[in-house]
Design a protein that fits this description.
By secondary structure, this protein is α/β, with parallel strands linked by helices. It has two domains: 15-46 and 279-375, Aspartate Aminotransferase, domain 1; 72-275, 3-Layer(aba) Sandwich (Aspartate Aminotransferase, domain 2), CATH 3.40.640.10. Helix content is 38%, strand content 13%. The protein has 13 helices and 13 strands. It has a seven-stranded mixed sheet, sandwiched between helices. The longest helix has 25 residues, at 278-302. The termini are far apart. Residues 1-5 have low confidence and may be disordered. Bound molecules: pyridoxal-5'-phosphate. Pyridoxal-5'-phosphate binds at residues 40, 97-99, 123, 170, 174, 202, 204, 231, 233, 239, 244.
């Protein structure tokens, strides 16, 4: 029977409730009136199956280390099959989180000083991973960024020919929300094979791919030398619980410490997410699609100088503020004068100067308040 009851919005929490209820990184040290629209946490209400699983674990006092042989890899593989038609045949290894997994992997794959390709503008922590490992970022900017951005396959070809050792891909891409096409990924895989370059595909935003868009798991098109990183942390907003996954046929042998450093609550919540929380995810995606339309509409009406091409995944608006007249640091001006905290585009690499990333994983009301304050600056 059709569900005729209006469902409560996942992204409907009021600013007052969020301000009084949230203690996570996004909300700390904010002057009272600042709207936090920066780090990648959503203002979502937790999926009920996840909340139930965590409550039940607390009731059982089940708060020890994560089991080393949990059902999470199998549950993830079932989700990948249902959601993307991807038959995961490679080993799936739980890690503390995606950042730790990629850093540890790069330590095995690269030698200090090696070049690793990144397709900027890109998630700023990629540069921190490289610093930790001692490798060098080789920036190959996306092309057509104002129209959403796509891989510069000729540029990647040249960088691989020049000796890059690995490529760290964001698929879907943070911050543009680009869902790389199967054709582009196939070409990338062919290049990687030709030059013997290891591709690490960070697919943490994949469950947030919008409807009517095909997400292509990179391992589906690549040979066994590629590695993918996944996590339920972004899509179900459980980053604080600490659990990510590395998937690959040819993974190095990691230290025993890897399994001991996974969050037990992260495993419990990830199983509940992948196995039992797909209806919640579908509703969330509908709300995020709506939010992207809200942003586009408000910008067209009140800030037409800002460039915005809505992505096809996740909850970021990558905004071209170069014609906004806010000076060289639009993110700084938005914080100081509009009391809206966004991420500075410069931290995303070369092409990010003059851009900001706004986190729109929140209510349409908060988005409207933030854009209203920015529009009032002029
Ligand atoms: C592309 C990408 N990779 C990795 C991360 C970090 O994930 P984790 O918290 O699992 O380290 C993020 C967080 O926003 C991200 O956007």
């Amino acid at each position: 029977m059709a569900d005729t009851h209006p469902r409560t919005a996942i992204l409907g929490s009021s600013l007052t409730d969020l301000q009084s209820g949230r203690t996570s990184a996004k909300w700390e040290n904010l002057a009272g009136d600042v709207l936090p629209m920066w780090v990648a946490e959503m203002d979502s209400v937790l999926a009920q199956p996840i909340a139930d699983a965590l409550h039940a674990a607390v009731e059982r006092s089940d708060t020890g280390y994560a089991a080393h042989d949990s059902e999470l890899p199998a549950v993830f593989a079932d989700f990948a099959q249902r959601r993307w038609g991807w038959s995961v045949t490679q080993p799936v290894i739980p890690f503390t989180d995606v950042g730790v997994a990629i850093t540890d992997l790069l330590r095995h794959l690269c030698r200090p000083g090696d070049g690793v390709i990144v397709t900027t503008p890109v998630y700023p922590s990629f540069f921190s991973y490289f610093d930790a490992v001692g490798v060098r970022p080789v920036e190959v900017p996306l092309i057509d960024i104002g129209d959403g951005g796509r891989l510069d396959l000729d540029g990647i070809d040249a960088a691989m020919r020049a000796g890059a050792r690995a490529l760290l891909l964001a698929n879907p891409h943070n911050p543009t929300g680009t869902v790389h096409s199967r054709a582009d990924l196939s070409t990338l895989a062919a290049l990687a094979e030709r030059y013997g370059v290891r591709v690490v595909s960070d697919e943490i935003h994949a469950p947030l791919t919008f409807s009517h868009t095909e997400f292509t798991p990179y391992l589906e098109v690549a040979g066994d030398t590629a590695v993918a990183a996944h996590s339920a942390s972004k899509a179900w907003n459980i980053a604080g619980l600490k659990c990510g996954l590395l998937i690959g046929a040819d993974l190095p042998s990691f230290s025993d410490q890897v399994a001991w450093a996974v969050g037990h609550f992260g495993v419990i919540a990830s199983i509940a997410a992948y196995r039992d929380s797909e209806a919640w995810l579908d509703q969330l995606i509908g709300e995020l699609e709506h939010n992207a339309e809200v942003v586009a509409g408000l910008l067209a009406d009140t800030l037409p100088q800002v460039g915005y091409c809505p992505g096809a995944a996740s909850y970021f608006a990558w905004l071209d503020c170069r014609r906004l007249d806010l000076g060289a640091d639009p993110a700084g001006a938005m914080l100081d004068r509009a009391r809206v905290k966004v991420s500075d585009g410069v931290s995303f690499g070369g092409p990010g100067a003059g851009w900001v990333r706004m986190n729109i994983g929140t209510s349409p009301e908060i988005i409207a308040t933030a854009l209203g304050r920015i529009a009032a600056l002029r």
